[in-house]
Amino acid sequence: MRRSKKRAKAPTIPIFGVDFLSLHNKECIPCKGGIPPLNKSQITPLIEQLGNDWIVVDDHHLERKFEFNDFQTALDFVNSAGEICEQQAHHADFELGWGRVKISIWTHKIDGLAESDFYLAAKINQIK
């Protein structure tokens, strides 16, 4: 008799009672307001999954700066990120300059951070 091997379960990080494997695989959920922004203890495990390039500013918004070799490449990046924002119906603020882009993300309806902000940031991280 041959026994089948059980596959090891991939590690997950429990957040709010739900396991998240990859933030970039999650879909942004439209916020209708009426909920509080995430607090520092809720933000910490999410920002750890994004990596060191994103920072949380004043427990209010995510921010990341990107550098490019020229204006056109920076513009192309903004357009690609903008397409993701449109697909997710969740919109970042972009600051575009020669060879640089700064992105700020927060949920305007609650004037702070929600889980979807981290999902959007992770999706933007996937742009090559």
Description:
- This protein has helices at residues 40-50, 71-88, 115-125; strands at 13-15, 18-20, 55-57, 61-67, 93-97, 100-105.
- By secondary structure, it is an alpha+beta fold.
- It has a domain at 38-125: 2-Layer Sandwich (Gyrase A, domain 2), CATH 3.30.1360.20.
- A hairpin with a 2-residue loop joins strand 1 and strand 2.
- Helix 1 (40-50) packs parallel to helix 3.
Q: What is the compact description of this entry?
A:
This protein is α+β, with helices and mostly antiparallel strands and 128 residues long. It has a domain of 88 residues: Gyrase A, domain 2 (2-Layer Sandwich), CATH 3.30.1360. It has three helices and six strands.
CATH class of the domain at 38-125: Alpha Beta
CATH topology of the domain at 38-125: Gyrase A, domain 2
Strand numbers in spatial order across the main sheet = 3-4-6-5
Strand content: 15-25%
Q: Low-confidence stretches at least 5 residues in length (pLDDT < 50)?
A: 1-20
Q: What is the general shape?
A: globular
N- to C-terminal separation?
A: 48 Å
CATH architecture of the domain at 38-125: 2-Layer Sandwich
Gyration radius (Cα, Å) is: 17 Å
Largest sheet: 4 strands, antiparallel
Mean pLDDT: 82
The assigned structural class equals: alpha+beta
Please tally the helical runs, counting DSSP H or I stretches of 4 or more residues: 3
Q: What's the CATH H-level superfamily name of the domain at 38-125?
A: Transcriptional coactivator/pterin dehydratase
Helix content: 25-40%
What is the string of helix and strand elements? EEHEEHEEH
**Total beta strand runs:** 6
